[in-house]
Specification:
By secondary structure, the protein is α/β, with parallel strands linked by helices. The chain has 12 helices and 9 strands. The chain has a 7-stranded parallel sheet, with helices on both faces.
């Protein structure tokens, strides 16, 4: 039985779907306040629902009971309920889950995280503390440090609107990055279960294409045959926002935008591809597919 923590998020739902497609029994942690549609979607996949909250240790212990594996994608960054924060979810909540899993005799705990950055911000501090707790737990651990999901950062919510032909670029847009699809992260998370390469390992990787923000815009412009209206957010404005932010979420998002602006999260995905997941998606192919869809 694999318990998925963060199952109602976009990455968590993808992981649940892939586990069920392989015929694996899945338990999904949901809150009492979880939207009915999300509950129904998880149940339709064949997941067993268990009600709990990372801020409630007893409920997490109940969720872990009988589980052999845990995959945790939970974060307070994109979706928050009352009382959620980087500290209560990304740090203490993950540590609570790790302790509960250890107590329940879980064989392996897979934690989704992200690479190191020289920029200081609360989300990174929380993730590193959770990672350290997992490594010290005595359980078999797998930590997936992955780059930015293009489905999130290249979306209308963050200023990249393909339909409107608009793009928001952080900094001058030239920093290299190997963006990754959340679907590929989900695939690797599932493949990590009982995989020798993932046993007590920190796996840091991105997608197959090393491209800048400008290059991504160019790919879509070429595929769609139309110029984009580009909005630039100056790097100095991001630095000022990061320096002045007092709210941990705001400071962390400013830091993440700075990392994109400066680039440099470039990691080799080839060992992971060869051993665990041959089908990494290319953002170049995504742009071509958008163009093909327009021509239909």
């Amino acid at each position: 039985m694999t318990l998925v923590i963060g199952a109602t998020g976009v990455l968590g739902r993808e992981i649940v779907g892939r586990l069920r497609a392989e015929g694996r029994p899945v338990r999904a942690l949901v809150r009492s306040t979880t939207d009915g549609g999300k509950r129904q979607a998880l149940q339709a996949m064949g997941a067993e629902l268990v009600t709990g909250d990372l801020k409630d240790p007893a409920s997490v212990e109940r969720a872990c009971h009988g589980a052999t594996h845990v995959i945790s994608t939970a974060s307070s960054t994109l979706s928050r309920a009352e009382g959620d924060s980087i500290d209560s979810v990304d740090r203490l909540g993950q540590i609570t889950a790790i302790r509960a899993a250890k107590k329940a005799g879980v064989k392996q705990f897979v934690l989704v995280s992200f690479p190191e950055s020289a920029i200081d911000y609360p989300l990174q501090d929380a993730k590193r503390e959770a990672e350290q707790a997992l490594q010290a737990s005595g359980m078999t651990y797998t930590i997936l440090r992955v780059t930015f999901f293009w489905e999130i950062w290249c979306s209308p919510a963050l200023g990249f609107d393909v339909a409107a032909r608009k793009a928001r670029i952080f900094g001058d847009g030239t920093g290299p990055m190997n963006w990754i699809s959340l679907q590929d992260v989900a695939a690797v998370a599932v493949r990590s279960l009982d995989h020798e390469m993932a046993r007590n390992r920190v796996l840091t990787f991105g997608g197959p294409d090393v491209v800048s923000q400008r290059e991504i815009v160019g790919l879509f412009e070429k595929a769609l045959g139309a110029k984009f209206e580009v909005e630039h957010v100056p790097v100095e404005a991001l630095r000022q926002q990061h320096a002045q932010a007092t709210d941990p979420i705001h400071k962390s998002f400013a830091a993440l935008m700075l990392i994109i602006a400066e680039g440099g999260w470039v990691f080799d995905h080839e060992p992971i591809r060869k051993a665990m997941h041959p089908g990494f998606a290319s953002i170049r192919d995504v742009a071509k597919a958008a163009g093909a869809a327009q021509r239909e």
